[in-house]
Amino acid sequence: xxxxxxxHLRPILLSCMVALATAAPARAQLNCGDTxxxxxxxxxxxxxxxxxxxxxGVTVEGGAKxxxxxxxxxxxxxxxxIGVLLEGKGAKVSRGGARGCNxxxxxxxxxxxxxxxxxxxxxxxxxxxxxxxxxxxRFIAATDNGNSGVDVNGTGNKVDDVQAVDNDSDGVAVDxxxxxxxxxxxxxxxxxxxxxxxxxxxxxxxxxxxxFEDGLQAEGPGNTIQKCFLSRNGHGDPDDAGIDVQxxxxxxxxxxxxxxxxxxxxxxxxxxxVVKKNVVLGHGVFDLEDENAGCAGTTWSKxxxxxxSAAGVPSPACIQ
Length: 320
Known about the structure:
Elements: H1 9-16, E1 26-28, E2 35-36, E3 41-44, E4 48-51, E5 58-60, E6 65-67, E7 72-75, E8 84-86, E9 92-99, E10 105-107, E11 114-121, E12 128-130, E13 136-143, E14 150-152, E15 158-165, E16 172-174, E17 180-187, E18 194-196, E19 202-204, E20 207-209, E21 216-218, E22 224-226, E23 229-231, E24 241-245, E25 250-253, E26 256-258, E27 263-267, E28 273-276, E29 279-281, E30 286-290, E31 299-301, E32 304-305, E33 308-310, E34 313-314
Parallel strand pairs: 1-3, 2-5, 3-6, 4-7, 5-8, 6-9, 7-9, 8-10, 9-11, 10-12, 11-13, 12-14, 13-15, 14-16, 15-17, 16-18, 17-19, 17-20, 18-21, 19-22, 20-23, 21-24, 22-25, 23-26, 24-27, 25-28, 26-29, 27-30, 28-31, 29-32, 30-33
Antiparallel strand pairs: 33-34
């Protein structure tokens, strides 16, 4: 279901820009279909577009640096290419964005790319598509995209300081293993704020609010969710939760979970989980719920909460 809100592209761009005190690269203008070759350092002087599938967007090869100078790659929404494509190893893109493309930016190749101060908006699919490993992304605004704001399909990526707002599906979806996410703000998305399908991922200092389904869903095993704030998620479906844990080995600790529509923290049947030192209050069904009888396999400790249930038994001794 679409959860698009008002377009607020320029304010988000201005808020996430960071001035870089480095020597200015050569100023140049690119056209749709152009490539920034390895070793080149360019700064855009104007927007690029209107780009189509036939022309393509802009490609940045490994070892090249593209400073977008606050400009955008603009795509034809009726025939959208990838806006900015990073190939090879170690490309860098900063201070710009892409609008109306298939994906605003896609990180391919051997990885090790860097993306900073980038706005991904109004994409037909995901705003940011990460297909390679060990990339670093920081200060990303992913808004009003047709699928997820950010989709992580590679391993060992660091994704920091993201605003994922009003995307049709998840704010941030992690479909691979061993990634680190910090300071993710996900709100108004049509599915989950953050969806962890892979294993061994770490999420810290996140904010997930007013998403249509879960604030954070941990479908994969062995993830860590720590020091996050999750509130007002869900639309009345009893399966929705601030944090919805569906597999083994996840650790949920030091989070603040307040006033979600149905449940605060929900541990699904068959999952073995550690849930400790969370403050979970003010939920429509239960603050803490374990679908396993007697909380089998789950350790609940040092949580602050009002209501609880284990396999339909209210206020069980096993939830603490």
